[in-house]
Structure formats: structure tokens, C-alpha cells
Write a structure and sequence with these properties.
Shape: rod-shaped
Distance between the termini: 69 Å
Low-confidence stretches: 1-39
Radius of gyration: 34 Å
Strand content: over 45%
Number of helices: 2
Structural class: mainly beta
Helix content: under 10%
Length: 602
């Protein structure tokens, strides 16, 4: 669908030549006024208008109409009057100004071809109080012109059977308000390089409906504001399409909604930004922030009731740079989530504040093929099935969960350093939960986890592996707590696992056995009041493994205060195991029921 975004509907050369050829002919008519009325039905033309002689209540021009060719001109359709033309033009040349007003139920202006509001001059269009306008394609601010169009009031309608361009080389402004409606196939805001487009859809019942594609910042600078209950709908949408283009969309206020019946891409090759605030709502299939190399895409979802709903995946940084900010009670939902999707990409997601939530019904990957960062803070919440930090070779993922009530809930496993580099920090009361936890999953790759601060917890409902096939480290400090069903430090042959539990209140509790060097290389340090609790501690479990338990400091290091090991049995296996006491305590002792054994060779 990205290829479709480059298509353009060209202006008919025939129409343009006709418009320019009439300039000299009609310049002498500037200042004249023709008004023909029948009862309340009125069609009025004044000033520089070609052709000039209007008929009422129904005026069939029989060709093009040019309002403001070299000077000021105006057309007014009121009280059920009708005008029928081929091409309509407001503000043809650089010194011209053209204005058209369609007012009242039954008042219509029908163009069988295109409509221009500001070609090289200035054009103004107002559709109000139930008036209606129709055409094929329409251009507001075409070439070097400036155009303004307003559709206001219930029943007021502008029907485009083709595309509507707001800023197509010039400066264009579109306002849809108080129940007005605009329809078309495709919509463009800020179409060509150098153009500026601004569109506002405001008020309950106000709508802009596109059956096809929608572009904000197609090649130029585009801004869309949906507010106070206004709505916009389309199929696929692109914000910041071309390199150098800038697109900005804001959806704010209860009832305000942007409905995309296809993908929504913020930052295709240019720069795109989306803000959802004040109970606004955005919906689409797949969402992408930062699609192409060099692009930037940013989404801010802020405030209670503000929502961004992706029925499929959400990608934060596909090949470019993506940023997702969910704050102050905002909510984002999707199937799978990915931060830093492809090699060379960069993605960052921040979920901050009580009530702020990112719900992934599928997996969440921090650093899929590029660089990814996730921060959950100040009571924010993230949920998903399987979680990955550093998924592919060459990727890097960093996740931080910090602050009271900040949570990351994985209903499945959590893998830190799956095939890339992964780092997880849980601090200051943050909480992470999952089924199986694995740190340093693949051979040759590394994962690091730190759990620090009172109230900080990492809950593994099943096994915890520190060094599965690769290198894994776990540090529990300053009152942090880790729990698991069983634990493995250096799980498989060739793996390396290292765990440090230090400081009073810091703990790792395993409801079943804890292995230090199961089939790989494992080291466990318990110091400075840290605590380990497990029914059994098994050191160097199988042949070829190496396991070391240090109480205090490692052998050869300066002695440190001891920690506490609560285990009914410490058993050495058939590998190379060691137990080092290198601490500063003078009254350290084993409980009477504790035992240290070598594995039986029977």
C-alpha cells in the first residue's frame, strides 16, 4: 500500500488553459453585479466573474466558471438556488480573490469536473446551513495560491467523487464544524513539497469521510485536528509520507475519533506525529511509527479515556525512529508489539502514570532487530504474552520498570537476551511477572537483570534460568526480591550464569531446587545480608559443569559481610563445585538441620 501513496491525480491541462485564456476577456467586467432572484431562491455574482450573466433560480453555466480572474469576484447561492458548472475556480491569478458561498437547505453548486479554491490567487469557499457542493477532485491552495474552505452546520455537505487536496503546492485550510460533512475517495493535507495544509474537524456530527487513502504531510507540511466530537475515516493513512514531509495529527475531546480501516503509518519516509488526548480515540489495523530509514514517527496518548486501538500489530521504529508515549491514564492496545523492528531502527516506548496502560494480546519485543527501549514508570502498566528483550542477532533491548505500582505482566515467558543483548532493570518498587524467566538465552549472547530497591519484585511462576545457553547475570540489591519455582544458574553446557544477592532485605526465594552450575558454569554470591531460600541447593550438578557458592566475597577478594542461605540440603554433583566462606562475620553458623553433601556415586 505504500506504493499507492505516491499516486497523484493530475489537474486537467484543458481546464487550466481555458482558465488562463479568459483572463483578458473578463477583466473589463470587474465591479459589475448581477442578481437574479425568484422568491427566496437567489443566485448572485459580483465583480470579476466569468461568465457573468447569471440566471435564477437555476443557473446552468454550460462550462467552466471563474470567480476572481485578475481581481475580486464572488458567487452567492442562497435559499435553494442552484448552479451547475464544469470546472469551478476561485482566485485564478496572483492578484485575484474569489469567494463562493452556498447557504441554506436545497442550495447547490454542482461541478461535473474539478474545483479549485485558490489557484495562484486567494480563494474562499463557505458551505453553510444545509448547502451542498459537489465535484470530482478539489484543490484548496493549488499551485502558489491560498485557499480556505469552511463547511459548517448540520446538513451542509461537500461531496468529492475523487480526491480532496488541502494545500497542493500552495496554502490550504479546511474547516468542518458544527455538524458539517465532507466526503471523498482520497484526502491529502500538505500534498506537494513546499505546500502547507491545515484541516480541522470540530464538533459533534462534523465528519470527513474518505473511502480510500488518507495523507497528512504527503510531500509538504500537513496538520489535522479532530476535536470536540468530530470524526475522520478512511482506509490506509500515512502521516509524513515523503522525505522532508511533515505530518501532524491531533485527536482530542470526548467523541472525537479517527477511524482507519487499514494500516496507520506515522512517519513513512518523513516526520509524523500523532497526539491522542482528552478522551479522543484512534483506531486502525496495524500501526507503525517510523516506517522507512531516516523517518521519525511519534505517538502520544495522554489522559484518562484517550485510546489508540490497533486490531493488529504495533511497531515502534520499523526501519526508522519511533517513539510511543502513554501517560496520565492513556491507553494503547494491539496484538503483538515490537520496539526497534529491523536492523538499524530505533524505538522507544514510555508508559507513565497511574492508569496508563499498554495492552498487547500477543508478544512484546523490545529490540526485535534494532535498538529498543521500554520504560514503565510512576504506576504505568504493560501487559503481553511472551516478552523478549533483545530478540535477534545484532539487536539490543533495554527495559526499565520503576516506581511503586509500575508493572510489566507477561502471561507467558520472559526472555532477556534471546538472540541479542538484553537488559532489564526493576527498581524503586517496580514489578515484573512472567511464567518462565530466561536471561542469556542463546549461545554467545548476553542478558542482564537487576532488581533493586524495597518493594521491587520479579516473580517467575515457573523456572528461572540465569545463563540458558548464553551468558546471564542477575543482581538483587537494596531490598529487591526475586521468586521462582526452581532456579538454574548456568543451565546448559557452555552457558555462564552469575547471581549476586546483597544487602539486607534482598532475596531470591525458590520453592523447589536451586542449581548453581547445572550443566554450565554458575556462580552465586550471597553477601551483606542478602538471602537465598530454597529446599535444596545443588552445586555443579552434572559432569562438565562448574558451580561456585560464595558466602560474603569470592575467593581472593576482600572479605565482605555474609548473607543468609536457607536450605535443608546443599549437595555437590558430579561436576566441579566449590563453597567459599570469605566474610567478616564472627558468629556465622549452619542451622542444625542443614546438611552439606557430595552426590552419591552408588
Amino acid at each position: 500500500m505504500i506504493n499507492q501513496a505516491s499516486q497523484r491525480t493530475a489537474m486537467a491541462k484543458r481546464s487550466r488553459r481555458s482558465l488562463l485564456a479568459t483572463t483578458a476577456l473578463v477583466s473589463c467586467l470587474v465591479g459589475l453585479v448581477t442578481t437574479v432572484s425568484a422568491s427566496a431562491q437567489t443566485v448572485t455574482v459580483s465583480g470579476d466573474v466569468s461568465p457573468f450573466s447569471a440566471t435564477s433560480p437555476d443557473w446552468n453555466v454550460g462550462g467552466d466558471i471563474e470567480i476572481g480572474v485578475t481581481g475580486p469576484g464572488a458567487l452567492s447561492i442562497e435559499g435553494g438556488g442552484t448552479v451547475t458548472t464544469t470546472v469551478g475556480v476561485l482566485g485564478l491569478t496572483s492578484a485575484s480573490t474569489g469567494a463562493a458561498t452556498v447557504t441554506g437547505a436545497g442550495s447547490t453548486w454542482t461541478n461535473s469536473d474539478v474545483l479549485f479554491v485558490g489557484v495562484q490567487g486567494s480563494g474562499t469557499l463557505i458551505i453553510e446551513e444545509g448547502g451542498a457542493l459537489s465535484n470530482t477532485d478539489a484543490y484548496i491552495g493549488h499551485a502558489s495560491g491560498t485557499g480556505t474552505a469552511t463547511v459548517t452546520g448540520a446538513g451542509s455537505a461537500w461531496t468529492n467523487s475523487g480526491s480532496l487536496y488541502v494545500g497542493n503546492g500552495g496554502v490550504g485550510t479546511l474547516s468542518i464544524e458544527d455538524g458539517g460533512g465532507v466526503t471523498g475517495i482520497r484526502g491529502f493535507i500538505g500534498s506537494d513539497p513546499g505546500s502547507i495544509g491545515r484541516a480541522t474537524v470540530s464538533g459533534a456530527g462534523s465528519s470527513w469521510t474518505n473511502s480510500g487513502l488518507f495523507f497528512v504531510g504527503d510531500g509538504g507540511d500537513g496538520t489535522l485536528e479532530i476535536e470536540n466530537g468530530g470524526t475522520v475515516s478512511n482506509s490506509f493513512a500515512y502521516v509524513g509520507l515523503a522525505e522532508g514531509a511533515v505530518g501532524t495529527v491531533t485527536v482530542s475531546g470526548a467523541g472525537s475519533a479517527w477511524t482507519n480501516n487499514g494500516e496507520l503509518t506515522i512517519g513513512v519516509s518523513g516526520a509524523g506525529a500523532l497526539t491522542v488526548a482528552g478522551e479522543g480515540a484512534v483506531g486502525n489495523t496495524t500501526g507503525i511509527l517510523g516506517y522507512g530509514a531516516g523517518s521519525t514517527g511519534t505517538a502520544n496518548v495522554t489522559g484518562a479515556g484517550s485510546t489508540w486501538t490497533n486490531t493488529r500489530d504495533l511497531i515502534v521504529g520499523r526501519s526508522g525512529t519511533g517513539a510511543l508515549n502513554i501517560e496520565d491514564g492513556g491507553s494503547v492496545s494491539n496484538a503483538a508489539g515490537s520496539i526497534g523492528q529491523l536492523m538499524g531502527s530505533s524505538g522507544e516506548a514510555v508508559v507513565a502514570g497511574v492508569g496508563s496502560a499498554w495492552a498487547n494480546t500477543g508478544s512484546l519485543t523490545v529490540g526485535y532487530g534494532g535498538d529498543g527501549a521500554l520504560t514503565v514508570k510512576d504506576g504505568g502498566a504493560v501487559s503481553n504474552r511472551i516478552g523478549y528483550i533483545g530478540f535477534s542477532v545484532g539487536s539490543s533491548g533495554v527495559a526499565t520498570v520503576t516506581g511503586d505500582a509500575s508493572t510489566w505482566v507477561n502471561s507467558g515467558d520472559l526472555l532477556v537476551g534471546y538472540s541479542g543483548k538484553g537488559i532489564l532493570s526493576i527498581e524503586n518498587g517496580g514489578s515484573v511477572t512472567n511464567r518462565v524467566g530466561a536471561v542469556g538465552f542463546s549461545s554467545g549472547l548476553s542478558g542482564e537483570v537487576a532488581v533493586s530497591g524495597a518493594g521491587s519484585t520479579w516473580t517467575n511462576d515457573s523456572s528461572l534460568f540465569i545463563g540458558t545457553f548464553g551468558t546471564g547475570t542477575l543482581t538483587i540489591a537494596d531490598g529487591g526480591a526475586v521468586s521462582s519455582a526452581d532456579g538454574y544458574i548456568g543451565r546448559n553446557s557452555g552457558s555462564i550464569g552469575a547471581v549476586i544477592v546483597r544487602d539486607s532485605g534482598s532475596s531470591w526465594t525458590s520453592s523447589s531446587s536451586l542449581y548453581v552450575g547445572n550443566a554450565g558454569f554458575g556462580t552465586l554470591n550471597i553477601a551483606d545480608g542478602g538471602a537465598i531460600s530454597a529446599p535444596q541447593l545443588r552445586i555443579a550438578d552434572v559432569t562438565g559443569s562448574t558451580g561456585t557458592l560464595n558466602i560474603g566475597a569470592a575467593a581472593g577478594d576482600a572479605a565482605a559481610a555474609a548473607g543468609t542461605l536457607s536450605a535443608e540440603l546443599v549437595q555437590f554433583g558430579s561436576g566441579t563445585g566449590s563453597l567459599n566462606f570469605n566474610h567478616t562475620e564472627t558468629n556465622y553458623a549452619f542451622a542444625r538441620r542443614s546438611a552439606v553433601r557430595e552426590r552419591s556415586t552408588r
